[in-house]
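Limitations

Structures in this collection are predictions, not experimental determinations, and the ligand pose is part of the prediction. Treat each record accordingly. The example that follows, with zinc ion as the small molecule, is included so readers can see exactly what is and is not provided: the inputs are given verbatim, and the output is the predicted complex.
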Amino acid sequence: MKILEEERRPAVDRGGAGEGPGTVVMRAYAELNDFLPRGWRQRSFEYPMTGGNSLKHLVESAGIPHTEIELILVNGESVGLDATVRDGDLISIYPVFESMDVGSAVRLRPEPLRRTRFVMDVHLGKLALIFRLLGFDVAFPGDVPDDELARISSEENRILLTRDTMLLKRNTVTHGCYLHSQDPEEQAAEILDRLDLRGSVRPFSRCLDCGAELKPASKESVLHLLEPLTRKYYDEFSVCTECGKVYWKGSHYGPLLELLNRLNIPVTVNGDEDEDED
Ligand SMILES: [Zn+2]
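Predicted complex:
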């Protein structure tokens, strides 16, 4: 259990720019502790600067991906991830969610992306489906190398969602989110909370197969594609603008409404746009 023996050793003395790589003292807050070995959680711990004096490198080599960090204080002053540190520095690391007024402190997150779009790794198939159901633009390229996921994220300005911390430590990944839960619905709730997305949800506006937008379709235009019972009982249809798949409020509609309810998302049943024009 015990990883570090000396629980209470104070910060090493400052300014002693002696030989050797030196040591910093780190402390992670709130859920950032999940990324650390047990003995380093919820407390200050000493960390050797063997890998150099780059703040980003030190924090990530301790286990915390840069995408998860909102604010870093070094000796009480907020700094960017490109800062360098010195022997004895005290590093406090805060997550995106720590509710605290950081005032004029340096926020590490880049500007939010103009439109919230996602790319998800191959393990997140169920989450991809849920997010498409909620109307978000989700790229789900399947089993592709990490390089490709990072490229899609940066070139297409998509937020990379994954449980792979190594992927999030890549420099090219500027917008990423680590998912703490392994349960797809909990993961969806995590991201809706973290990115404050509940107001951006547009349920039933995207194709669950390919992720493209749906457009309303007249019954006549899709009649030839429908089973007899569907023809008989349904009058409202929409069709995928990419793959042509036809959607209607069939038997799966009830369970989907329940899912939205569990995710705390108010449902406006007819998908017409109210305010969104540009
Ligand atoms: Zn489609």
